[in-house]
């Protein structure tokens, strides 16, 4: 996951400060030296690092901080606020035209994730009750048009295409007209990328820009490329007047430098972050939440928002009732897994919880989607009766389930044991809540 190294290093700097009742100027200097190294190692632009450290130092060395009751905490707070500022301060929202449709032009180098992000953005807008149109303007990359059409089909968003023999400027122009004619309120224009920033590419983008006069020009950059992403953003911005940046591949083990430098270097705010290949892995970028994630303080707000948007409240209540009455079956287990999956990949959910990155063993815990898939396969290979009365699942049945789900007997045994433990715990819990004292859980 992104920022892991940076978070770890910053936390060790702060835990030293936190332990101190009094903080001297030397302590602050030493801490800032380490913060500086941590940021440089995370591939943050060196000038950005220099300014950042100077700002934090200036605030931290003030009399109030050093004489405060908890100087360490106050300094962490200063770093948190400055990190937030560095990434733009407040959330930069997507532009909205006074008169629809709002035109969004996507730009970026090949492979940055432009086409994928166009689809994700359409999905996000659609979730907000908008009617987007995707325009296939990348006529050079083989299969880019097809890729957009497949994405559009998947999310039921119309895709405007004129094949690859018509100029991108003409496609953009006709696409916009198509949106107007069909009363669509957002137009997302996918454009061609190149391997490097070049004259010809910029010229084409400028022409499209002049023709459709977009309300928003979003540059898609790959966060994994670190400083390169920032340099690319800088050169695009000099020629195209970007209105925002989308950082992709933040789910990978990027060191995070791009997220922390892009706004400071280019002046362009990061508007969205992409955290995976799936169609719903795009989120509005919140600087304050990102800062708190980087500092290992979790991002409960994003998690709560996700839960509210995706989890069925009635189902959650029913599940709670079942757990309390220890009526939980394998069917409920599957259902619960489905709900959790809607929140996104498990490791990203864990990442949003405060302190999870520090929690013992969490780093090595790889609960990936594939593993969830295997668990699901096991449960689905059970008969109806087995699901509701797991106690009947004997050795022979386990062998059958393992064969049916393409897993091993050991995996089936493990899952059933976990499920039993869980049920026993629930029983005990509900007993306690009923004031009965509960039975002793046998281990
Ligand atoms: P384009 O050339 O800029 O249009 O790039 P594509 O949209 O085709 O994306 C290039 C590759 O990056 C594809 O394999 C995408 O699935 C992948 N990709 C895009 N965004 C993300 C992301 O946020 N996370 C990950 N892991 N992969 C991504």
Automatic annotation (TrEMBL):
- Per its record, what are the GO molecular function terms? 7S RNA binding; GTP binding; GTPase activity
Q: Which InterPro entries match?
A: AAA+_ATPase, P-loop_NTPase, Signal_recog_part_SRP54_M_sf, Signal_recog_particl_SRP54_hlx, Signal_recog_particle_SRP54_M, SRP, SRP54, SRP54_GTPase_dom
Residues reported to bind GTP: 108-115, 190-194, 248-251
What residues does the AAA+ ATPase domain cover?
Answer: 100-247
EC category? hydrolase
* Membrane-spanning parts: none
Keyword match Cell inner membrane: no
Alphabetized Gene3D superfamilies for the sequence: P-loop containing nucleotide triphosphate hydrolases, Signal recognition particle SRP54, nucleotide-binding domain, Signal recognition particle, SRP54 subunit, M-domain
Q: Which residues form the Signal recognition particle SRP54 helical bundle domain?
A: 2-87
Q: Name the family.
A: Belongs to the GTP-binding SRP family. SRP54 subfamily.
Q: What is this protein called?
A: Signal recognition particle protein
Organism from which the protein derives: Paenibacillus apii
**Taxonomic lineage of this organism?**
Bacteria, Bacillati, Bacillota, Bacilli, Bacillales
Gene that specifies this protein: ffh
């Amino acid at each position: 996951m992104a920022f892991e190294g940076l978070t770890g290093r910053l936390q060790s700097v702060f835990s030293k400060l936190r332990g101190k009742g009094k903080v001297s100027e030397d302590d602050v200097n030493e801490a800032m030296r380490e913060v500086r190294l941590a940021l440089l190692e995370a591939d943050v632009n060196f000038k950005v690092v220099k300014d950042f450290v100077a700002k934090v130092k200036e605030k931290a060395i003030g009399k109030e901080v050093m004489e405060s009751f908890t100087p360490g905490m106050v300094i962490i707070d200063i770093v948190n606020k400055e990190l937030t500022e560095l990434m733009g301060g407040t959330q930069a929202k997507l532009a909205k035209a006074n008169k629809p449709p709002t035109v969004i032009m996507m730009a970026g180098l090949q492979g940055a994730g432009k086409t994928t992000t166009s689809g994700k953005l359409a999905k996000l807008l659609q979730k907000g009750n908008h009617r987007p149109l995707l325009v296939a303007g990348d006529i050079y990359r083989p299969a880019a048009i097809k890729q957009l059409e497949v994405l559009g089909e998947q999310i039921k968003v119309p895709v405007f295409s004129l094949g690859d023999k018509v100029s991108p400027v003409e496609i953009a122009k006709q696409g916009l007209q198509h949106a107007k004619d069909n009363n669509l309120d957002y137009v997302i224009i996918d454009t061609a990328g190149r391997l490097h920033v070049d004259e010809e590419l910029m010229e084409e983008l400028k022409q499209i820009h002049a023709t459709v006069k977009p309300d928003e020009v979003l540059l898609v950059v790959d966060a994994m490329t670190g400083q390169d992403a920032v340099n690319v953003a800088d050169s695009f911005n000099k020629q195209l007047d970007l209105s925002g940046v989308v950082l992709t591949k933040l789910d990978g083990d990027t060191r995070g430098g791009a997220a922390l430098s892009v706004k400071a270097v280019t002046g362009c705010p990061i508007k969205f972050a992409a955290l995976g290949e799936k169609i719903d892995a795009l989120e509005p970028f919140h600087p304050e939440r990102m800062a708190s994630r980087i500092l290992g303080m979790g991002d409960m707000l994003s998690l709560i928002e996700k839960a509210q948007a995706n989890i069925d409240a009635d189902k959650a209540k029913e599940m709670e009732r079942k757990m309390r009455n220890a009526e939980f079956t394998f069917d409920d287990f599957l259902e619960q897994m489905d709900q959790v999956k809607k929140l996104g990949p498990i490791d990203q959910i864990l990442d949003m919880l405060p302190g999870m990155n520090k929690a013992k063993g969490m780093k090595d815990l790889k609960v990936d989607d594939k593993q969830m898939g295997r668990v699901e396969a096991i449960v689905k290979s059970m008969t109806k009766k087995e699901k509701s009365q797991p106690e009947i699942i004997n050795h022979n049945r386990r062998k059958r389930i393992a064969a049916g789900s393409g897993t091993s007997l050991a995996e089936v045994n493990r899952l059933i044991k976990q499920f039993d433990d869980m049920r026993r715990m629930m029983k005990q819990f509900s007993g306690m809540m009923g004031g009965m004292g509960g039975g002793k859980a046998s281990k």
